[in-house]
Amino acid sequence: MAADALIINADDLGLWPSVDRGIFAAWATRVISDSTVFANTPDLAAILAHATAENLPVGVHLNLTHGKPLSDPAEIPALVTADGVFMKRTAWMLPLPVTQVRLELFRQVERLLAYGWRPSHLDSHHHIHTYPEVQSVVVELAQQHGLPVRAVNEEIRQTLGDAGVATPDHFSMVFYGEYASVETLMQLVEECPGGVLEIMTHPGYVTPGLPSSYSEEREQELRVLSAPRWREYLTAQRIPLIGYDALRR
User: Fold this and answer.
1) Nearest 10 degrees: CA dihedral of 42, 45, 50, 54?
2) How confident is residue 20, by pLDDT bands cut at 50, 70 and 90?
3) What are the domain boundaries of the chain?
4) How far is it between the farthest Cα atoms of the chain?
């Protein structure tokens, strides 16, 4: 069997200007079909204006591990360092306080809504919605706003489905690092047992100061996604690229 349709989502809009440029370049040639943005990026207004002009779907990359929160750090002490920035997951004291998680993640979605933006879907940085206390908040947000959600495994897919939240049928994070190749993409398509497959990607360009250990690999992903052989394969197999919006319909 094979996938019936693909969602190729570009994570990390708002991480760094060169990453944003890479994602918009990928969208310009339609080698991605959706994207997600950090709501706490200072460039959010400009990114959404550009997305509006280019008709790029943008969801919310829910985030508790990168940058400064939208909340006052005093309101979410379990999630921030003494400097008022998000702490790394390795420093979390589990379980996280749901009230603090809810306060911050609701503000992240509300920030996009305040610009008049309709998010395409919800996913999360570092897959934080695999944590039960975060997952419960994401379910609430999805139900309240009628948004599909990335399901990174079958357990989460079942939880979301039971809550009436739409998800792709399958998800892969394999297209990453040394496995970012046309061969990997083809194998993912061909080994999928039908339905809609989401492939997580991180295209971008590298410039000094990029706040990520995943840097040159972003340019590699962009080259592979843009490769004629991959695009010709999709055309020959008649496999469409769709956005998360198709799941809402």
Assistant:
1) 120
2) very high
3) 5-248
4) 55
Q: 3-state secondary structure string, the chain?
A: CCCCEEEEEEEEECCCHHHHHHHHHHHHCCCCCEEEECCCCCCHHHHHHHHHHHCCCCEEEECCCCCCCCCCHHHCHHHECCCCCECCHHHCCCCCCHHHHHHHHHHHHHHHHHCCCCCCCEEEHHHHHHCHHHHHHHHHHHHHHCCCECCCCHHHHHHHHHCCCCCCCEEECCCCHHHCCHHHHHHHHHHCCCCEEEEEECCCCCCCCCCCCCCHHHHHHHHHHCCHHHHHHHHHHCCCECCCHHHHC
Tokens at residue 198, please? 């989401």
pLDDT digits (tens, 9 = 90+) for 91-123: 999 999 999 999 999 999 999 999 999 999 999
pLDDT of residue 249: 61
Beta bridge partners of 149: 122
For 5-248, which CATH superfamily applies? Glycoside hydrolase/deacetylase (3.20.20.370)
Global pTM? 0.96
Report the length, in residues, of the chain: 249
**Per-residue pLDDT reduced to its tens digit, 189-247:** 999 999 999 999 999 999 898 888 888 999 999 999 999 999 999 999 999 999 999 99
